[in-house]
Amino acid sequence: QKEVEQDPGPLSVPEGAIVSLNCTYSNSAFQYFMWYRQYSRKGPELLMYTYSSGNKEDGRFTAQVDKSSKYISLFIRDSQPSDSATYLCAMSRGGSNYKLTFGKGTLLTVNP
Amino acid sequence: DVKVTQSSRYLVKRTGEKVFLECVQDMDHENMFWYRQDPGLGLRLIYFSYDVKMKEKGDIPEGYSVSREKKERFSLILESASTNQTSMYLCASSLIGRISGNTIYFGEGSWLTVV
Asked: Quick one: average pLDDT of A27-33?
C-alpha cells in the first residue's frame, strides 16, 4: 500500500461547481496536512495547511482532515476557470522530521 | 512572501555534460530541498540540506550531488548528464517548526532536457 494515495483524475467540472479533491494515507504518524496548487509548467504553491483533525476555511477553499479514517479533502466552492490546475496533497510528521510525503496530484479543469 | 528563485527556467544540455542548477531563498529557512517531477511519478526527493555544508540523500540521489556553501543557496549538480535525467527540477525551502509543520515552499522549476 502506498503511503499517500490520490486519484489522478482528470476531473472536469463546469464553472460554479463545488469540487471535492481527496487523499488517503496509511501512516498514522502524519500530523500536518497540506494542499498545493500547481499550474502548468510552474512550481507548486501552498494553498492551505492544517494540523491534526478538523476543518480550515480560506475564502472558497476548505480543507478537512479526518485522522480516524486517514482521509483528507479539499473543497473548492464556486469553482472558476482560474482554478484549473493540478492539486497535490502532502503530509508530514512535523517537528524535526523534515520529510513531506506527496500524493501524485489530481488534474482539475473548470470549464467556463 | 517566501521567495525561492531558480536561476534557470529552461536548459538544454548534451549527454555527458556537467550541469549546475542554482537555487536561492530569501527567508532564512534552515531546510532546502531538490525534487524532480515526472509525469505519473509525482515529486521525488533527490537531496535535502538542513544546514550549511550539511546534506542528506533523498529517495533518488544517484547521478546527482549538491552543494550548500551559504544558508540561502542550494545547488544541484548533475556530474554527467544523461537522457533519463530529462525532467522538471524543483527547489524548495522550509522552516523547522511545530507551527509550520515543515511546510515547504517551491521555486518555479527548471526544465532540463538532455539530448
From this structure: 90
Q: Which chain A residue lies closest to B109 (C-alpha atoms)?
A: A43
Query: What number of other Cβ atoms are within 10 A of residue A70's Cβ?
Result: 17
Statement: residue A95 has pLDDT above 80:
no
Quickly list DSSP for B45-78.
Answer: EEEEESSTT--EE-S--TTEEEEEEETTEEEEEE
Query: For residue A53, which phi and psi values (nearest 5 degrees)?
Result: -85, 160
Query: Are B102 and A92 in contact (CB < 8 Å)?
Result: yes
- pLDDT tens-digit readout, B12-52: 999 999 999 999 999 888 889 999 999 888 899 999 998 89
Question: Exposure of B62 by Cβ count < 10 A (0-12 exposed, 13-18 middle, 19+ buried)?
Answer: exposed
Contacts of B50 in chain A (CB under 8 A): 98
Interchain contact A86–B (C-beta under 8 A) = no
Mutate to test the interface with A, among B2, B43, B45, B110 (most CBs of A within 10 A): B43
Contact in structure between A29 and A84 (CB atoms under 8 Å)? no
Contacts of A103 in chain B (CB under 8 A): 42
pLDDT score at B27: 86
Q: What is the C-alpha to C-alpha distance for residues B92 and B115, in angstroms, rounded to an integer?
A: 26
